Amino acid sequence: MENNKISKEQSKDTGIIIALIVLLSGTFLESFLLVKASIVIIFISFLIPALFYYPAIVWFGFSKIIGSVVSKIVLAIIFILAVIPVGLIRKVMKKDTMMIRSFKKGSVSSWSVREHKYSESDILKPY
């Protein structure tokens, strides 16, 4: 979906979702009228899906918003549950693989001089 271009299939899918919501509402409220309405909505969604064009814009716009919010929540949870505990454990164990503490203590540059002449095999097979 780009630039709110809703396809015929997306309109049809939106009609089916609306029919499902009405059907579930009719089941829980024990309303036979809502069950009949859901059947009519299903037929309309297959025969004239263009009627669900504007509801499809709203539906897919809502899904885009929910998707962006949920992805940020999931990434935050993963960060809190995985990255922060590992960082805290490494800090308690005083691990310093990047040698930041030794770099801060000394006056020497962190760049190391490497005397290596590159050959053809280095380029052909870099790994």
Structure, described:
The protein is an all-alpha fold and 127 residues long. It contains five helices and no strands. Helix 1 runs antiparallel to helix 2. The two termini are 40 Å apart.
Tally of strands? 0
Strand content: under 5%
- Gross morphology is elongated
Q: Which H/E pattern describes the elements? A: HHHHH
What is the rounded Rg?
A: 29 Å
Sheet of most strands: none
Could you write a compact summary of the structure shown?
This protein is mainly alpha-helical and 127 residues long.
Question: Topology of this protein?
Answer:
Elements: H1 8-28, H2 32-47, H3 53-92, H4 100-105, H5 120-124
Helix pairs in contact: 1-2, 1-3
Question: What features would you highlight for this structure?
Answer:
127 residues, elongated, 5 helices
